[in-house]
Design a protein that fits this description.
This protein has helices at 2-31, 108-117, 137-147, 162-168, 249-275, 277-280; strands at 34-37, 40-52, 57-70, 73-86, 91-103, 121-123, 176-193, 200-216, 222-238, 287-289, 292-295, 298-299, 309-311. The chain is α/β, with parallel strands linked by helices. Helix 2 (108-117) crosses helix 5.
């Protein structure tokens, strides 16, 4: 009877602790700040060829002639007319400009890492608004040729100006914005022969470097700032050096997303512990299961290297 009472008391205490912990977790989650994660901002220089025509030309010519001849003399009538018109305005050339856009294929893993490893609430912000379409270079030159005045390009919003985007209301319901800018993106594609054999390795990879900032939408204070790197690769062993096997690009992008999210998360939670104690309390304590760090009930995303895939091409 004594053992049953002790066991019942222990179970009651555990139930109370679990209930209190659950209430604390729910209260912490309800009061946790809202964070919007932007797609990675990306700007690249684009060059294109343009051509302006508007050239006209016309020509007209008329010749008439008549006459009669006899032993006493002769008479004749001749006529000739000519006309020509021409106009020009033909311009061709090449010009370059900066194209601004967002990469949306690498942020879902980042959002997942924040959801699994923190109590923060994620909200969806608006996509980048590039403004009204600009007149093309050909249209600008044509207006200058025809009217003597070139069309003035309109000032376009900058994808990297996160403060202007916050003021514009693109992250209306967010307390903080995790803003990322791609600083380097590099694809590699290499074929390396294996010495002493007729085989070769085909290596296809992607390396992505992004700069992140966690910004307070009310005060514009930077709570964290760091670079994060992601990479992925796909290696195939070809039976003959002249064989061709397409790389698994989806696998490469998947590995890059996971490794980028892992590096970003570790940098973020480390800096929050130094810069803001209130935000640091929103990080879930890590739980280890069989030596593997967990975020909540899920393991921290880690891109595991895959063994080379051997491709045999039968001829």
């Amino acid at each position: 009877m004594q053992r049953r009472t002790t066991l019942g008391t222990a179970l009651s205490v555990l139930a109370v602790i679990a209930l209190a912990w659950g209430s604390t977790a729910r209260a912490q989650q309800n009061t946790a700040p809202k964070i919007a994660v932007t797609d990675l901002a990306y700007a690249q220089r684009v060059s294109e060829y343009f051509m302006v025509g508007n050239y006209q030309r016309s020509s007209q010519m008329s010749v008439q002639g008549s006459g009669s001849h006899s032993m006493f003399g002769g008479s004749g009538q001749h006529s000739m007319q000519a006309s020509e018109q021409a106009s020009g305005s033909y311009v061709a050339g090449r010009y370059s400009y900066i194209e601004q856009r967002e990469l949306g294929g690498y942020t879902n893993a980042i959002k997942g890492a924040i959801l699994q490893g923190t109590y923060f609430r994620l909200v969806q912000g608006k996509g980048f608004d590039a403004g009204q379409p600009q007149p093309s270079k050909a249209e600008q030159v044509l207006n200058q040729v025809q009217g003597g005045k070139m069309a003035t390009p309109q000032a376009q919003p900058q994808v990297t100006d996160v403060i202007a985007r916050i003021k514009k209301g693109e992250f209306h319901d967010a307390d903080y914005v995790l803003f990322g800018v791609v600083s380097s993106i590099d694809f590699t594609d290499a074929l390396s022969p294996l010495q002493g054999t007729t085989s070769a390795t085909h290596q296809y990879g992607l390396q992505l470097l992004a700069d992140f900032s966690l910004i307070d939408t009310k005060t514009y204070e930077i709570k964290a700032a760091f670079p994060a790197q992601g990479q992925g690769n796909d290696t195939k062993i070809l039976s003959n050096r002249g064989d061709i096997a397409p790389p698994n690009r989806a696998k490469v992008m998947h590995e890059t997303s996971l490794s980028l999210a892992q590096h970003m998360y570790l940098q973020l939670v480390t800096q929050l512990g130094y810069t803001d104690a209130h935000l640091a309390r929103g990080v879930r304590p890590p739980v280890y299961q069989q030596g593997v760090p967990m975020q909540g009930s899920q393991p921290i995303p880690v891109a595991q290297p895959q063994p080379p895939e051997q491709v045999l091409i039968l001829k």
